[in-house]
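Input record (Table S2, row 97):
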Amino acid sequence: MATFIEINVDDGEYTEELRKKLVAVCPVDIFAVENTRVKVRPEQEDECILCEACLDLAPVRTLQIRKTYSNECLMARGEGPNIESLDSDSNGESEPL
Ligand code: SF4
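Output record (iron/sulfur cluster complex):
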């Protein structure tokens, strides 16, 4: 059970390839694919070394690492497939401020 780190992933928009890449990118085996979905392995969560490789890979807002000791959250910032479908505006143009 995690004590210091909580990791949440929403892989609903991920391709099969991206799921496999996420599993492969973590040096401490925190992610696994079960029944075609990415799962966080709770027994591994506290092994996270905060290398942020998963955050660089996962599309924006689909993965979050929370440091429970400081409540700081690190958010995914990658450019995985279907990233535009996660935004309300899917044509790539920004709404005026
Ligand atoms: S930050 Fe690094 S160690 Fe932690 S879950 Fe992501 S890839 Fe794994």
